[in-house]
Amino acid sequence: MHFGNNLNYWVVDNDLIDVSRGSASSLTIHLENNRRMRFNPQRSAIIVIDMQNFFGSEKLGRGPSTRDLVPSLHRLIAGARVFDVRVAWVNWGNRPDLANLPPSVLYTFGKHQPDSGIGSPLPDNLGPALLKDTWSADLLEELKVSHDSRDWWVDKYRLSGFSGTVLDAALRASGIETLFFTGVNIDQCVWSTFLDATNLGYDCVLVKDCTATSSPSFCYDAVVYNISRQTGLVTTAEKFCAPMA
After folding, report:
1. Based on the structure, what is the number of domains in the chain?
2. Among 172, 60, 74, which residue's Cα sits nearest to residue 116?
3. Of 64, 123, 131, 153, whose CB has the highest number of CB atoms within 10 Å?
4. What is the maximum span of the chain, computed from C-alpha positions, in angstroms?
5. Do 161 and 189 touch, CB atoms closer than 8 A?
6. pLDDT tens-digit profile of 191-215?
7. Could you tell me if 147 and 236 lie in one domain?
8. For 62-72, what is each residue's pLDDT tens digit?
9. Burial of 20 (0-12, 13-18, 19+ CB in 10 A)
10. Pairing mode, strands 16-18 and 86-92
11. Do 33 and 85 sit in the same domain of this protein?
């Protein structure tokens, strides 16, 4: 079945979802639930959300859920390099004066962590929380080996990586159509960015083993369930890195 118009379309044939839009340089990967997806790697990007010291560092007493994603993310990003897939690091990076943040965002952080609300000084002289170019807003040390100067670094200011940022403009300027979502927290910033991307017309794929949350497990399960019920585009790092002929 053909969904879309003559230029922007998916073709679905039994268990194969083809979002390559007729590209001759397509790849086919396995999805969850015995499905496959064909896509154009040169028009695709890995979106890595909030893999920052603030959310994952042991120095702040964070649990292992964020750090546990590092091996899968290394594998996924290495595969992306081979297939010429873009990588975009989308992270909190706020203004020092907080002028761009409404009370609702400041309250959301401050009510749960009074001593580490956005802009507040962190313990042990670790600097302010989630301000641009500070330690807490920096990439987890364990992930830095996967960062490359060709990657995009996008500062975000809301749960969604699209609100008030350059992300959409950068993706469209490069002809990106298909997005693979990773990072934390799956039920908050990842889900919010995923929904906005869907509403903007991108093909959205969840890389299940490259996402996590500090929330109860049912929050993670609910997001995976909803994505599976909508488009069914859910994969893993292993499936992504083992494309079919």
Report:
1. 2
2. 60
3. 131
4. 59
5. yes
6. 999 999 999 999 999 999 999 999 9
7. yes
8. 999 999 999 99
9. buried
10. unpaired
11. yes
Q: Render pLDDT for 76-96 as a digit per residue (tens, 0 to 9).
A: 999 999 999 999 999 999 999
Same-domain check for residues 132 and 177: no
Rounded CA-CA distance 214/3 in Å is: 37
Q: Tell me, yes or no, whether 65 lies in a domain.
A: yes
- Residue 245, domain member (yes or no): no
Distance CA 80, CA 97 (A): 37
Residues in contact with 119: Cβ distance below 8 Å, sequence separation at least 6, in sequence order: 94, 96, 98, 128, 129, 130, 131
Q: In CATH, what number is assigned to the domain containing residue 70?
A: 3.40.50.850
CA pair distance 151, 169, nearest whole angstrom: 15
**pLDDT at res. 232:** 83
Strands 16-18, 36-39: pairing kind: parallel
